[in-house]
């Protein structure tokens, strides 16, 4: 199943995974990502204020915002209500995937085994997050897992960094990567560093296309 929103998201090739910070900091973080050339982000639903922040960010028409860490079906409803345009989930939950289909919400489920890939394919989903990418075996794991599934495209996430980004993006099975390395300086309030790391990631992504 192809989807315009997921295509637009993955065309950036790097999806920043963003924690819920204080409101002002989250808005500054989103601006820094845009300044660096990545007008997309996945807000992880791991804090009380994450949905509220998602709603604030979703009001920005120049930003493509989704919800991450969606692990229960009711969170799909909440994410849609808050303005999320896509959902990322760390595993393959039939209840979450069915709810996404019912609501027309694009979803990238997480997989780390062939059985999970097959389960996602049974739901008609072919763009899958390899999670946790580095801890489950990194590049070698991705190549081995991709081999039996030529129709699947992966979004490795978890342990992706400025150092290994290009190696992942050069793999034909990799559609995009997700990661938080460019966001980390925001925890110290250094939004200029966020913009710089983001711009560097964008530049590596452009280089990996050649
Ligand atoms: C997460 O679990 O928050 C995401 O997979 C991001 O992982 P990372 O912080 O290793 O980039």
How are the SSEs placed, and which strands pair?
Blueprint: H1 4-11, E1 14-18, H2 23-36, E2 40-44, H3 50-58, E3 64-68, H4 73-82, E4 87-89, H5 94-103, E5 107-111, H6 114-122, E6 127-130, H7 138-146, E7 153-154, H8 165-169, E8 177-179, H9 191-208
Parallel strand pairs: 1-2, 1-8, 2-3, 4-5, 5-6, 6-7
Helix pairs in contact: 2-9, 3-4, 4-5
The structure holds 3-phosphoglyceric acid (3PG).
How would you describe this protein?
The protein has helices at about 5-10, 25-35, 50-60, 75-80, 95-105, 115-120, 140-145, 165-170, 190-210, and strands spanning about 15-20, 40-45, 65-70, 85-90, 105-110, 125-130, 155, 175-180. With about 210 residues, it is an alpha/beta fold. The chain has a single domain (about 5-205), classed as Alpha-Beta Barrel (TIM Barrel). It has a four-stranded parallel sheet with strand order 3-2-1-8. Strands 4-5-6-7 form a four-stranded parallel sheet, with helices on one face. Strand 5, helix 6 and strand 6 form a beta-alpha-beta unit. Helix 3 (about 50-60) packs parallel to helix 4 (about 75-80) and helix 4 (about 75-80) runs parallel beside helix 5. The chain starts with a helix and ends with a helix. The mean pLDDT is about 95.
Q: Could you say which structural class the secondary elements and strand pairing correspond to?
A: alpha/beta
**Which ranges are low-confidence, i.e. pLDDT below 50, for 5 or more consecutive residues?**
none
Proportion of helical residues: 40-55%
Helix/strand order, N-terminal first: HEHEHEHEHEHEHEHEH
In CATH, what is the class?
Alpha Beta
* Counted beta strands: 8
State the helix count. Answer: 9
What would you call the shape? globular
* CATH homologous superfamily descriptor: Aldolase class I
Kindly report the CATH topology: TIM Barrel
Bound molecules: 3-phosphoglyceric acid
Integer count of domains: 1
Largest sheet descriptor: 4 strands, parallel
The residue-averaged pLDDT reads 97
